[in-house]
């Protein structure tokens, strides 16, 4: 109770603090949802990334990257696993099986 006889509930203060904390976390977390850029660093000097692979040069199984995070692009190096864990995405590689 305050001196004037009014009772103040803590619920609005707690709710405001929790909501403010969540909004601040979303702002500062670094995870940006809905950004249009997929390719963050592969052949950025080119207007369009196009890779050609001769089917005769492929081994029995060839695994291609679809997440744009591979250090061996256009081939997969497993980088999609970390990308998926961080972003919540579910992208995986393209696997070509030569029969």
From TrEMBL:
Location(s), subcellular: Mitochondrion outer membrane
Domain Iron-binding zinc finger CDGSH type, residue spans: 48-86
A cellular component annotation (GO) from this entry: mitochondrial outer membrane
Record keywords, A-Z: 2Fe-2S, Iron, Iron-sulfur, Membrane, Metal-binding, Mitochondrion, Mitochondrion outer membrane, Transmembrane, Transmembrane helix
Transmembrane segments: 6-25
Major localisation: mitochondrion
Taxonomy, superkingdom: Eukaryota
Membrane topology label: Single-pass membrane protein
One Gene Ontology term from the biological process aspect of the record: regulation of autophagy
Pfam families in alphabetical order: zf-CDGSH
Residue stretches in coiled coil: none
InterPro entries cross-referenced by the UniProt entry: CISD1/2, FeS-contain_CDGSH-typ, MitoNEET_CISD
GO MF term set: 2 iron, 2 sulfur cluster binding; metal ion binding
Cofactors required: [2Fe-2S] cluster
Name the record gives this protein: CDGSH iron sulfur domain 1
Species annotation: Callorhinchus milii
